[in-house]
Give the backbone structure.
Amino acid sequence: MKTKTPHTRLAFIFALAAMFPAVIMAQPKIVQKATLEYDFPGRYEGQAAQGMAIYEEVALLFNNEGHCRIYNLKTKKKLTEFNLASHGGSNHVNCVSFGVEQPKGAFFPVIYVSECYGNRQCFVESISPKGPRLLQTLTIKTGGIEERSFDWVVDRENKFIYSLASQSKDGKKGVQVTKWNLPPLGKKKITFQKADIVDQFFVAFPNLTQGACIRKGYLYLPVGLHDAPEGAPDFKSREIIVVNLKTKKIEKSIDINASCPYEPEDCDFYGDTLLLYCGQQGGLWRIPGVL
């Protein structure tokens, strides 16, 4: 067999790169050190930590079944706590997003709460001095995988809402991302049909998916489970998966296994800082290296 010269080998490598760019240019996995910024409890009154949403200087932390605690991020003090109007056994509150519209008398824009269990609906609630109020319910009836969406996440800047459903495609595990127009408030029940799908795509990664948030055209997905030895049956790598919603590709994954031992639950931005809400002992963790 004839041995290739160095120049021939280089030409061969460049030819392979042109033929298989997906292999050569795979999304980078970047190790970053997550740091505990706020030691707010995760598990609370016997219920696991789940969704989180941040608006200006307040963080809304949610536990399974729909209990909400509101904290001031400047003073680190708890302001209040209450049960959502949608509180109940099927409401896992897996992901929470702020919307766009703010009803008269409400403290904030409405929140979009992912039921995750049961009918996998999205509950749209307002929070005012009179307490929480259920304004709208979103449901998907298409006959497709999107009916099993476990997360709903709002793109406030562009007035869309995305739903996420677990999917396996070509032997790879990941999520199906479906884009919908954000319905205006007013109608109490919205049922999305196939004709309402604005866009849809699949992203592959093996981790257990948790919550989500969207900012400046990027979808941020905290994934994984609590600390376990790598190779153990319950090991699920803790990362932040960053998806470019324009290219529909994963741009990078931020590996936080070494620095954050707790289960990632949900994330949102406080200014330009991405904060991750964790289960077990909880806390809000600062994640560097985001886009």
About this structure: The chain has two helices and 22 strands.
